[in-house]
Amino acid sequence: MMLLAIDTATSTVSVAISDRGAPVGSISLTGGRRHAEQLAPAIRYLCQEVGVSLEQLAAVAVDVGPGLFTGLRVGVTTAKVMAQALRVPVVGVPSLDLVAYPLRHSNRLVVAVLDARRHEVFSARYRPVPGGVQRVSDYDVRPPAELVAELDAGTDELLVAGDGVAAYRDEFASLEHAELAGVDHAAPSATALVELATARFEREEFQLASELRPLYLRSSDAEINWERRAPVGAR
Fold this sequence. Notes:
- The protein has 235 residues and is of the alpha/beta class.
- The protein is built from 8 helices and 11 strands.
- It has helices at residues 35-50, 69-86, 95-100, 144-153, 163-167, 169-173, 190-202, 221-229, and strands at 2-7, 12-19, 22-30, 57-63, 90-93, 109-117, 120-129, 132-135, 140-142, 158-161, 178-180.
- Helix 1 (35-50) crosses helix 2 (69-86).
- The chain is globular.
- The relative contact order is 0.18.
């Protein structure tokens, strides 16, 4: 079963192709907010390099966020269009799950933190369990100082991962019972997307392309700016 995985939730554009859950090739590009320019050529290049045609795909997997608004829109729209054209199902997986899953062998509570811009972070907490991680909190968006204060108030030993840690390093460095996972775990993992999406596909936990929705958690920057400028009676 061939699967195409797409991740554009952060500043990194990642694409992977797997066969029965095992990655056969992947590519990651970091170039700011150029998701629309980079994604289609990355898919085309990877297919050529691994010798896989789009018609061989049984499913398309995509990171549904939370993350950068424009990046999510590009990735989710591309996944929906491809799934509809190929008449295959689509599997959506949240970005914070993809940060936490590679850390499933830790004995600490895993905290996935992604930079939400506007001095906020997206976050969720996970407890390692046999075979993976179990989310034990809601997906959330808040200022990093609020998240750090809440984590400091707990007693769990923590493993904190994601690009939100580097973006607000001073805040997270103050945690006394936490280990920081480092740059290798800064972005959602395309390999994790392949593994989690394959498992969900095999359990038939997939969607029609028309049903797929991004997980934004808050309004886009454009909507926030409009709300601030619009007269009260126009809201």
